[in-house]
Amino acid sequence: MVPVLTQSLGTSSTASLHPPSTPLRSSSARALGFRPSFLSRPLLSWSSFPAAGLRCKVQRRERRMGPRCEAAVTEKEADEASGEKFEYQAEVSRLLDLIVHSLYSHKEVFLRELVSNASDALDKLRFLSVMDSSLLGDAGDLEIRIKPDPDNGTITITDTGIGMTKEELIDCLGTIAQSGTSKFLKALKENKDAGTDNGLIGQFGVGFYSAFLVAERVVVSTKNPKSDKQYVWEAEADSSSYVIREETDPEKLIKRGTQITLFLREDDKFEFADPTRIQGLVKNYSQFVSFPIYTWQEKSRTVEVEEEEEPKEGEETKPEEEKKKKKKTVTEKYWDWELANETKPIWMRNPKEVEKDEYNEFYKKTFNEFLDPLAHTHFTTEGEVEFRSVLYVPGMAPLNNEDLINPKTKNIRLYVKRVFISDDFDGELFPRYLSFVKGVVDSDDLPLNVSREILQESRIVRIMRKRLVRKTFDMIQELSESENKEDYKKFWENFGKLLKLGCIEDTGNHKRLTPLLRFYSSKSEEDMISLDEYVENMGENQNAIYYLATDSLKSAKTAPFVEKLVQKDIEVLYLVEPIDEVAIQNLQTYKEKKFIDISKEDLELGDEDEVKEREEKQEYNLLCDWMKQQLGDKVAKVQISKRLSSSPCVLVSGKFGWSANMERLMKAQTLGDTSSLEFMRGRRILEINPEHPIIKDLNAACKNDPSSTEAKRAVDLLYDTALISSGYTPDSPAELGNKIYEMMAIALGGRWGRSESDEVAEGANSEATSSEAGSSETTEGEVVEPSEVRPENDPWKD
């Protein structure tokens, strides 16, 4: 490379690049390194050679030295581009305001954050006291006390934890987003001999500042057991500074721990200084914190008091010694500490040690239910994601159907290290069709945002959701296999529709969903059966699962589609709920058996007699063509049926269109698209039964008198009747009614005789009708005198 450079730049340029005091290194070293000796800032100046000349020479020798020369130029440009570094500046008061009012959507979470900090302080003390028992001293038990003062508008939260020194006050409270708990955990991890404490909650270092959501001033008084001094930290809500001083008032001294006093804003005094409200927040957010939490509550008790009897009228007043005193029971009010977190986190215990009654009691208390759950499961998952959970199947469905499929139901309570985070989810942990499941989920390492309110979408959440869904299916499967069949029957009545919804929305869990489905069938009209039972009852030659979708069980049993299948002892599933047909169509197969709708064309039962079919086709081929000609576009074609035994005909739908049941459902949609009805409606095929007398009569009419008006009317009526019996809705019900009335009149035709007066009246009516039709000129009716002729059977005749 050296000869190339000397040829390109010239001798003078090369000399200017290398000072006399610096020896020229080997070409290989320069090729690999390009140290500052080659292109150092003091030695390389643009005055030595023009930049354009360098570019020109580089371009001429591009193939041999271009990359190396470009690297050298890049290094020089980077050296010149490097500038002076500056630290970001922030307006502290504005930053604090953003943290307080942007991270949290509800003011009430301030108590959760402060109680969590107190719990961490107690955890630290408990951990450190194992190595140094003198830290506990005589400062009392490890506990948290919360005392609201409605009169002064303050809340005081006191813990007997580790406390803080002056340096820690400056480091933890004076530095925004600095987590003392996080630093403590880091120190534990570095010191492997000491182990780790996973009970610690804090991680972001901003939870303390949530106090300014409701407080205009915060005072922190704290004492570390290793320090002889107690310090007070004080700050205003809108200030960018804070004050630290030593506590000198003997009445305010504490033995150990931290005491936080919140001076509430005017708007928040009424709500958050209320003892009942504070106790409710503790029960909601911090009910399962591992340390006792006491709240200052007003209580009542009955006491007996003595009072003097009043003298009766007319009696003299007795001396004090002789006055009788009577005892009276009165109710007096007093203030005392009350334990707010009595319920223990049942999910932290070993499932083998928990009785069923304990699970039921926990369920009722946590979710305010009055019925026992139908089933429960308690499990712990380890590995990539570690969490504990207790899930329940409720005893009954919500009364409001909208709550039944609402993914935002508050049925799953999420905890992180036993601190309640949220119960407002939109399908992150459970799909919509399993939104009825209730339970608690507790994890130590969920990916939460800083406010602990939003579960961030991540791979961990997807894994967690997958395991929760799998455990739920296991729980429901155990319920279906239990000896008490009534429990699963009750479950199916309440939540069966949701599992069918899962068949539509969750194709990945079809294998877990299908064994849980239940349907009525032609062989089990009283009790529902599973698909496994259907497959077990199948004959040897049956290769499919047959079903019929209708609007009721009664219409399914009497439908003409099932006649031949019932005759051949083939079981048919009855889908009587609106969601059933769509769910089955999404499943398509079960255990390699296809689902076949018997109301559609090309039904194959597997035992057809080809010779008989060929003969019937030849015999009735002319009739099929004649009937198709009479019906026109109402049907796509007319053919011999394989599914009828007692009905004369049936109207089946095409293989790829809507069935009669689906067409009925789509027409009933409130916001349905009527323009798609004609497009999606399947073609209609009229199938006739060659064994039925009506079809035989029509076959004779077709051959002997194809232009017969009565035969044509019979074909029209036959189609309309098949339309109704097959589940379709006639276009004009009134027109169909008139046809039936005409046929009834012809059929009855005076069979039981009529009275002469009825015949006369009928004749008069017919004459009047003909005269009205013929004489439209008459505008006024004629007056007819009553007849003097009396019939012989007149009872009023003399």
Please write out the topology.
Elements: H1 2-9, H2 11-17, H3 27-33, H4 36-39, H5 51-60, H6 62-81, H7 92-103, H8 109-131, E1 144-149, E2 154-159, H9 166-173, H10 180-190, E3 215-223, E4 231-236, E5 242-246, E6 257-264, H11 269-272, H12 275-285, E7 293-308, E8 325-339, H13 356-367, E9 375-381, E10 387-393, H14 401-404, E11 412-416, E12 419-422, E13 438-443, H15 459-481, H16 485-505, H17 510-513, E14 519-521, E15 524-529, H18 531-537, E16 544-549, H19 553-557, H20 563-567, E17 572-575, H21 580-587, E18 589-590, E19 593-597, H22 610-631, E20 637-640, E21 649-653, H23 660-667, H24 677-680, E22 684-688, H25 693-704, H26 709-725, H27 733-748, H28 756-774
Parallel strand pairs: 1-7, 11-13, 16-17, 16-19, 20-22
Antiparallel strand pairs: 1-2, 2-6, 3-4, 3-6, 4-5, 7-8, 9-10, 10-13, 11-12, 14-15, 14-17, 18-19, 21-22
Domain Histidine kinase/HSP90-like ATPase: 106-268
GO molecular function: ATP binding; ATP hydrolysis activity; ATP-dependent protein folding chaperone; unfolded protein binding
Binding site for ATP: 113, 117, 159, 164, 179-180, 203-208, 258, 452
